[in-house]
Amino acid sequence: xxxxxxxxxxxxxxxxxxxxxxxxxxxxxxxxxxxxxxxxxxxxxxxxxxxxxxxxxxxxxxxxxxxxxxxxxxxxxxxxxxxxxxxxxxxxxxxxxxxxxxxxxxxxxxxxxxxxxxxxxxxxxxxxxxxxxxxxxxxxxxxxxxxxxxxxxxxxxxxxxxxxxxxxxxxxxxxxxxxxxxxxxxxxxxxxxxxxxxxxxxxxxxxxxxxxxxxxxxxxxxxxxxx
Length: 227
Hints:
Elements: E1 6-11, H1 15-26, E2 31-37, H2 40-50, E3 54-57, H3 66-77, E4 82-87, H4 92-101, E5 105-108, H5 113-124, H6 132-159, H7 164-174, H8 179-186, H9 190-204, H10 209-218, H11 221-225
Parallel strand pairs: 1-2, 1-3, 3-4, 4-5
Helix pairs in contact: 2-3, 3-4, 7-10
């Protein structure tokens, strides 16, 4: 137990949720609610003025990402204030955006009162653990990143074996050009074009040159080679 009261600011645009959280916190002898607001703009204003230890904040308020903006602002202007998300949103984009902005923990909206209180105390002490549902999202993202990295490395190894002409043809395909347009633009014979395409398909072990071009485009290959 910490010696001083944990000063908490509640930021949520849903009145029933603010009232619920206020009720839960008001019975705790080591906590004090210093404010309860319904918008991100007020959350920033009150947080910078009242200097709470913890801001218990929703992601969606006056805008879909108002809470994220608040967390980012407080992390820059008052890093001693801990931003603790309390939201029903569980998609990985939102969760990662919150942590990237500076949140110390992410509570799902159906968390119990006991979990909420424990998270607030942990936030005040900067001792938050990663919750199982959040850990699952992180593991999934890590696996996706590893898979993407492996694909990128394998693709780069093949790209370095392409001739400049082959890479240029793939770029044109990625831009949506047709075979006829490419023949006219590059002033090459159809037989030469087919040879280049055949070499590309052989190197990538693929069945469609356009599919290869789209894959390279999605990986940002052309942006790297044609800056």
